[in-house]
Every structure is written in C-alpha cells, then in structure tokens.
Amino acid sequence: MSNTGLSDAVAMKLVSETPHLRWLDVSLNSGLSDEFVGFLANNCPHLQWLSLAYCSNVTKKGVFELLEHCENLSFLNLRRTPIGLKFESFCYYIIIIY
Question: Which bin fits 71, alpha (ψ -120 to 50), beta or left (φ > 0)?
Fold first, then answer.
C-alpha cells in the first residue's frame, strides 16, 4: 500500500480485513496519522515488519503506542518522519531505519 494516497479511514478498513497481518508497507502516504498507527497497535498483534517512511503525520505518540502493543515487531522504518532519531535509544530490540 505504498504511495497510494491512503487516508486513515481507508487504511483501517483494509487492515481490519486482514487480522493476521505480519508485514505492512505504507510508505509515502502522508494522509496517514497516529490514528492509523494506534489502530495497528490495537488490532494487529502479529505485526512483525512495518514501514512508515515518509508518513509525515506520524508522531512519537503513535509510535510509542505501536511499540507498547506490538510485541512481535522486529523491523520499523521511520525514514523521513517527524520522529527521526528520537527512538533509537528506546528500540534497541528493533531494527529501525531512519
């Protein structure tokens, strides 16, 4: 779903139809925000790989919620988000690209 112009509502609808989601690339979707990331955190317990690169409306609030709830997450791409290097010290167990 990279670079598709998704909104939070549309992305949440698509994700809700895939309850065992493990891998998701929503890079380059500036319409996505913490609302969508929070939805992932609370509805995708099996998520292991996520790219939020260039999602300019995702903040540390959404990412903290994701890290709190998605225990299986092992890869998180935050390249060119407002978060940048701020999470490096919190995520020693996750491969983070920024």
Answer: alpha
Rg of the Cα atoms in the chain? 12
Give the model confidence (pLDDT) of 24-69 as tens digits: 999 999 999 999 999 999 999 999 999 999 999 999 899 999 989 9
Task: Look up tokens 């020693």; give the residue.
Answer: 92
The model's pTM: 0.83
Phi, psi for residue 27 in degrees, rounded to 5: -55, 150
Q: How far apart are the first and last CA of the chain?
A: 20
Element (H, E) at 68: helix 60-69
> Do the Cβ atoms of 29 and 6 come closer than 8 Å?
yes
Query: From residue 89, how far is each of 1, 67, 85, 94 by CA, in Å?
Result: 29, 13, 9, 10
User: Cβ distance 64 to 45 under 8 Å?
Assistant: no
Tokens of 1: 């779903």
